[in-house]
Amino acid sequence: MLIEYKNVNVYQETQEVLSDVSFSLQEGEFAYIIGKVGSGKSSLIKTLYGELPIHEGEAEVMEYNLTTLKNRHLPELRRKLGIIFQDFQLLTDRTVKGNLYFVLKATGWKDKAAIEERIQQVLTLVGMEHKGNNYPSELSGGEQQRIAIARAILNRPKLILADEPTGNLDAETSNKITELLQRLVKEFNSTVIMITHNLGLLEQYPGRIFECKDHKLVEISSNSLESAKKDIDGEDKNEPDSVSKEEEKEQVTSEAEEQTVDATNEQAASETEEQAVTASKTGDQQDNDVNKCEAQQNKHSKHHNKHHKH
Questions:
Q1: Band of residue 293 on the pLDDT scale cut at 50, 70, 90
Q2: How do the domains of the chain map onto residue ranges?
Q3: In angstroms, rounded to a whole number, what is the distance separating the alpha carbons of residues 96 and 137?
Q4: Beta strands in 98-202 (DSSP E)
Q5: Which is nearest to 30 in space by CA: 137, 189, 154?
Q6: What is the mean pLDDT of residues 211-234?
Q7: Residues 66-88: tens digit of each pLDDT
């Protein structure tokens, strides 16, 4: 079994996002993870490569026990899997070949001829063999995602994790990217887990379907997809975008409020300091006035006594 989870609880810091997660995947399977925004999809993916630790339940990925895995062994695990992100995360200061070269060198490749050969192999596989000398900014979104897939499969991973790889792409390009991922399963016996909000892809490109719902992970059949689609779409089919924008707005507002509070506190502290200085000066002035007054009184008293003696 490539992946096996039993009664796993998934946390973001101290907040439980998924509870009692149990599922398994073998080599050569294609699986979708669907669910509303904030339902725990990305958090689950992050546990698979050790970004989020697992402390409760049993979890094994490619024979690594995630509940006992030490941090120093995480790079070893991650070298055996490929990760594809929605926003590509390509290095913009170097060419396509430069991006792939960087990954191979970082993962222990030393022979330059072998590196060049492997780069050409993966670029050909994703249909980008003529784009090696281009920079990411010169590529379309679909082309950048193909390069991201090429990067993910450089080390021939058994497991590929794709976190909304078609989220920023048009329908036609989304279809081509999904076709490419399914091709990796068929030709190389890789296992692919793909998070998506595009439920139309599930009908065109079948696979196992897991839904994050009510803090649980449940496997559903293709016959239940229509019901799941209504549940996820809710009242607004653009909910993911509207929610994320609203969350962003709330975050910006919150940060602005915090900055305002900080500025107010700084101003108050400054005013308090100025008042203290002023008070100190006033106190000193009062002391001087009292001293002057006492000196004049003493002088007058001496003069009066002297006149009285005469």
A1: very low
A2: 3-236, 237-310
A3: 10
A4: 159-163, 191-195
A5: 189
A6: 87
A7: 999 999 999 999 999 999 988 99
